[in-house]
Amino acid sequence: MFLESKPMSLCIADLGCSSGPNSLSNIKELVNAIERESSKLFERAPEFRVYLNDLPTNDFNTIFQALPDLYRELKKGRNHGSPSIYIAGYPGTFYGRLFPDKCLHFIYSSNSLHWLSRVPPGIYNEQGDSTNRKSIYISENSPPQVAQAYFEQFKQDFSLFLQSRSDEVVVGGRMVLILLGRNGPNYVDRGTAFLWEILYRSLAILVSKGEVEEEKLDSYEVHFYAPSKEELEDEIRKEGSFKLDRFEMFEIEKDTGNSSTSYGKAVAMTVRSIQESMISHHFGEAILDNLFEEYGRLVDEEMAKEDIRSISFVLVLQKS
């Protein structure tokens, strides 16, 4: 994208930036890549405008407090000093407009677009009760209208995402989107449904111990959807603003990087980091430690029986 347009001021947005160490390491990688290409051409690198986006509840202060370290890292080994980089936080949902017209050259979003804007209203009956009994996501026990409701919510959200970015990205700009997906048309994909099945079972154990009210469990649903390759391609084609340059699929590795940590515990820590605020809001904070201890144990038990792997998609889109 940079080599084609060579902007003097390059504008990058990270959508769903979170507040962990990757929030700023991604910026460093992108800046380094552009500076390498600029030096090959014996040209000066552009200035960088970086917009970090997440929901207003995200801990932006942690990111901002880490900025001096990033600036020091970027200055290392550069005789001409650190690159010109201007970083700002943009709180808000990416299911809608966030930025001014035609201001972005590059968008990066990792592990965010499988989260829906809301729990699909179509899963509730006229009395407001969930029809998805004994499940918190699409499962073998779910009635057909539950899967359809999740699919309709995904289509609505992803189409709005593409429309909003279409107004904000310059012609020729790129988006790199990474999200969990599923293989084939079956809504109940073992690689993703498994994670929510285990969470339901862990909550049910706490119900049996009297630590969680059964009514609370019956009313809990997740606003998540793992689309298929065909569903993503179809929405991109229908919206029409972006051309799909590349589509890759990869399995998530089981290596935890720590021999003392079981795979189940590692998965439990990951799911907890994502779901903690939602679970705390619905059930209260007191259950968290016991809940995810059960979760890790159940994951290890299931993985001993069969090898279950989630898949992720990488999409590279170009603004037409």
From TrEMBL:
GO terms for molecular function: metal ion binding; methyltransferase activity. Pfam families: Methyltransf_7 (PF03492). Belongs to the methyltransferase superfamily. Type-7 methyltransferase family. InterPro entries: MeTrfase_7, MeTrfase_capping, SAM-dependent_MTases_sf. This is Salicylate carboxymethyltransferase-like. Keywords: Magnesium, Metal-binding, Methyltransferase, Transferase. One of its GO terms (biological process) is methylation.
